[in-house]
Amino acid sequence: MEINFFVDGLKEALEQDKVFIMPINGTSMQPFLHTGDLVVLSKPFALKKNDIVFYLRDNGQYVLHRIFKVKKNKFFLLGDHQTKIEKNIREDQILAKANYVIINEKKVLFSDKKYRIYLFFWRFRFLRYLIIKLRKI
């Protein structure tokens, strides 16, 4: 299902200070998230490295990626299944921040030990690049 279908509901929920549960669609956050997994979103606050955010690109495309770096009020974002960093994303482009995800009907908190281990290793771009290339063989 097209992600734009959910945006109006997301905006309405955020205006009411509620969370919004949205299904994942696409491959850019693999191997952590897959199509059909759910992300629980809320208003973006205290954004920092490794947060997962839902944002609007200048070309009108909505995307869910991870903050790779913050520098001078600009965000550098990167999908887990990508090696190219998207630079200079403005704070006003970020619509929501992920509170947690639901994978195979199981709630995964970002404070969970398994998640923190995944995040530790996946932050190394050379390792990410190697794994992505090996998966294509």
Can you walk through the features of this model?
Strands 1, 2, 3, 4, 5, 6, 7 and 8 form an eight-stranded antiparallel beta sheet that branches. With 137 residues, the chain is of the alpha+beta class. The radius of gyration is 14 Å and the shape is globular. A hairpin with a 2-residue loop joins strand 7 and strand 8 (106-109). The chain has three helices and eight strands. It has a single domain (4-135), classed as Umud Fragment, subunit A, CATH 2.10.109.10.
Write the layout of secondary structure elements.
Layout: H1 4-15, E1 20-23, E2 38-42, E3 52-56, E4 62-71, E5 74-78, E6 86-90, E7 94-103, E8 106-109, H2 113-122, H3 125-135
Antiparallel strand pairs: 1-2, 2-7, 3-4, 3-7, 4-5, 5-6, 7-8
